[in-house]
Amino acid sequence: MNIYFACSITGGREFEPVYQSIVKALLEDGHEVPTAHLADPSVKEMEQIVSPGDVYTRDVTWIRNADVLVAEVSTPSHGVGYEIGYALGLGKPVFACSRKDRKISKMISGNPDPKLNVKQYSDFEDAVQIVRNFLAENSLHKL
User: Fold this and answer.
1) CATH number at residue 68
2) For residue 142, is it within any domain?
3) What is the pLDDT of residues 81-105, one digit of tens each?
4) Which secondary structure element, helix H or strand E, spans residue 138, and what is its range?
């Protein structure tokens, strides 16, 4: 499955170890993750050399080509919110997860779109498991 993974870059990297756990699991499970570099600790430096226009073009192309979008939303991010809305506008299934002790935007938690699934997790292992459950459920629906 082609998975667009979304997470905060400039808004904060507090949950970077969770990003890394999710991306590692996705790759180990044989999925294509064009945004795997977003889990890398040096992502801010890597992304600084790419122009805003190029980032936009690259990322919306990746979203268009993805089967699903998986987002870690514990840290507020304008970009991740935009990516979620863009994917939903294309009719893509979207999974947004956050730590149980974090409040997320009501634009995400209150969105009634049937293609949006929002769940909370308690630790790294739980985060990976709920992502895997979402992907298993959506692979049954023949994306």
Assistant:
1) 3.40.50.450
2) no
3) 999 999 999 999 999 999 999 999 9
4) helix 124-139
